[in-house]
Write a structure and sequence with these properties.
Layout lengths: L4 H32 L3 H20 L9 H18 L21 E2 L2 E2 L1 H14 L3 H4 L14 H19 L8 E5 L5 H14 L4 E5 H12 L8 H8 L2 E7 L6 H16 L3 E6 L3 H19 L1 E5 L4 H5 L2
Parallel strand pairs: 3-6, 3-7, 4-5, 5-6
Antiparallel strand pairs: 1-2
């Protein structure tokens, strides 16, 4: 997915606004120079007149009409720069000022997205992910096996490999992950590291805690006014949806139905989901009924993380 059409159009609109602002500033500077620098406008008019005159002559058959045009224009340009400098202005005072001089605020260079456009996309993806602050502090290099021993270490190594494989094969293989296990064993951190790698490669990722997700779905479902479809559409269409701390939300028929419908719709669209939970598989089955659990079993790879509470060991 990357970004939606509306998000793309929003970025393009910002580029249009930047170019318009640059043009307005240039026009204002030109007006100032014309009215405060004697002889500058006359030199500009001379360049234009000379170009028109020589072009007409060339079209009329004069083969030598354009031979020295370049050098004459260069001479007039040098005179213009000299006038600007004598007036205490920089020689490039009447050069348009762009935020990105490489693409001149068009977003494209030779039909390819400029580096600034790619950064605009990444910024937008991060802003919409609900993870901007979290992801500024995490990456896979922070994940360490030092806190795990015995069977816990075996579980960790298996989970870590599945997480790296998930990122590595994301564009080639449809996959979903469910991290489950004891509190503080790195489930949310693993999800965050996956999210960062995918966001940095231009994929759209949305993170919600289970509680916040159900609040958003409830607000949308029971809204009495005009409903904003963008949140729900993004939940269906983003490349990766992360649902953190499943099982902490209020459990009732609405929440169970909403979770089932959301996950099922993403399955149908072949859109990946990562779920983390502190519940055991038996608790998940009892909480969310066989209907949802069978969907999870058929479409998710289960990743078990067990061991000590790492946050307690680190002191936070």
């Amino acid at each position: 997915m990357g970004i939606s059409n509306s998000q793309y159009n929003s970025i393009i609109s910002r580029y249009d606004a930047r170019r318009m602002s640059a043009a307005d500033e240039l026009n204002s500077r030109r007006d100032y120079v014309y009215s405060h620098v004697d002889g500058y406008k006359e030199l500009c008019d001379a360049v234009a007149s000379l170009s028109v005159e020589r072009t007409k002559a060339a079209l009329s058959g004069d083969k030598n009409a354009l031979s020295d045009l370049g050098s004459l224009i260069d001479d007039l340009s040098s005179q213009k720069k000299a006038l600007l400098i004598s007036a205490g202005l920089p020689e490039d005072y009447l050069t348009a000022s762009y935020i990105c001089n490489d693409c001149k605020d068009t977003g494209y260079i030779n039909g390819q997205k400029c580096h600034c456009f790619k950064q605009e996309v990444l910024t937008l993806l991060y802003d919409n992910s609900n993870m901007k602050e979290i992801l500024s502090q995490v990456d896979f290099s922070m994940i360490s096996s030092d806190y795990y021993k015995g069977s816990d270490l075996i579980n960790f190594n298996k989970t870590y490999e599945k997480a790296r494989e998930f990122v590595r094969d994301f564009d080639k293989t449809y996959d979903n992950l469910l991290f489950y296990g004891t509190v503080g064993t790195g489930k949310s951190l693993m999800s965050s590291c996956i999210a960062k790698e995918l966001l940095d490669s231009g994929h759209s990722v949305i993170y919600f805690s289970a509680i916040a997700l159900l609040e958003a779905l409830s607000d949308y479902t029971f809204s009495s006014g005009k409903r904003d479809d963008s949140t729900v559409n993004n939940l269906y269409e983003c490349d990766l949806l992360i649902i953190d701390d499943l099982g902490t939300e209020l459990i009732n028929s609405f929440t169970i139905s909403s979770i089932f419908n959301l996950i099922n719709e993403r399955f149908n669209r072949r859109k990946s989901v990562i779920i983390s939970t502190n519940q055991t598989l038996i608790q998940l089955q009892e909480t969310y009924t066989d209907r949802i659990f069978s969907r999870l079993s058929a479409n998710f790879r289960f990743c078990n993380l067990t061991g000590p509470d790492i946050r307690m060991l680190k002191g936070y």
